[in-house]
Amino acid sequence: MYINRNAVVIKAKQPFVDWVNSTPKAQEEKGHVFTLAEINADCEVLLIPDCESFEEAAENIRPLKMDVFEDALDDWETDENYWPVNRDEETFDKWFELEIHSMVDDTVEEPIVRDEPEEE
């Protein structure tokens, strides 16, 4: 069944991979150097409102970029002291590629279950 959402696949670019390989977590892997293919083997996917154009989808994504950026950094290194100083939209665009897909089908009969947000 078609759903009224667009899917956005967040794919890393080489600068993100270079940063990953500089983190203590990567160093714990005993010298293993992560590749772009390894990092992109399991990408984050966002569902955004159904959009009429790529430009409209890009506008829907813009306010989410910093949260997506920080989530990606936190997945690899929880100590923010190792995070890049520049975490702005320009850096995000250098580190990540967005694939926007307008045809999203839900092939599961069961309802979608949403996780409750964590309370701070």
Helix content: 25-40%
* Distance between the amino and carboxyl termini: 36 Å
Counting structural domains, the number is 1
Strand sequence of the main sheet, in spatial order? 2-1-3
What's the multimeric state?
single chain
Low-confidence stretches: none
The sequence of SSEs as H and E is EHHHEHHHE
The overall strand count is: 3
Query: Could you say which overall geometry the principal axes of the C-alpha atoms support?
Result: globular
Portion in strands: 15-25%
The profile of the biggest β sheet is: 3 strands, antiparallel
| Estimated structural class | alpha+beta
Mean residue pLDDT: 90
Round the Cα radius of gyration to an integer and report it.
16 Å
Individual helix count: 6
Structure explained in plain terms:
Strands 2-1-3 form a three-stranded antiparallel β-sheet. 10% of the residues are buried. It is of the alpha+beta class. The model has no long low-confidence stretch (mean pLDDT 90). It has one domain. The chain is built from six helices and three strands.
